[in-house]
# Entry
Amino acid sequence: MGDMTFSEFTDSLTLNLGQREDISSYVDAWINVAYLDLCTKNKFWSLSVPKKFLFYELQATDETDTVDGTAYIATPSDCLSIYAVWDNDNDVKLHRINLRQYVSYTGRADTDSEGSPGKYVRSGANIYLYPTPDDAYTLTTYYKKRPAELTGTDTTVIGAEWDEVILDLATIQSMKKLRMYEDYKIWKAEWLETVGSKMGMYESEQDDTRNILKPDVAYIGYGRKT
# Structure
């Protein structure tokens, strides 16, 4: 089975909800809400998303040149959260600070205090840099992106294996809105079990970062002659 298109999602959701004619104006939004929720939320009822779990398809980069005397660069428009900011010219990672630290720095508007940015903080639609750039530096922003809304024949960016998960989440959320409480409870319980298993499977990719084959210390000296 290939990726479901958005129109197939909406047709399937309508079917799951009993082919009700009074929901036709809502199903598009319900699918997109479920899709966005799956990609961005860290908890679904009793299920907390494992910290090591992520959708690799939502990792993105953006290259931007700084402007001499301008204290910021634009945050990518689809950015949810920033992993890191890298100075390509100096081959260094900028240090993340908080906004209170940034506003405490003096000389941010002083041309004599400009230099190669070493720190950054995200605030609103911008990424503020310190010190204020004294030249054009190419910065790469590594970030988690927000997926675009689906329409027409669009498919998701996270892979066909998550299509049923999105559809079922949309069904569950819709059932609650429609006060189909008994069905809502049944579908939710099955969904939580399915999603928990899928997320656990994805964590297996992290196995090479752990000492999973390291021998138990209790057996290190087993069989050794003394």
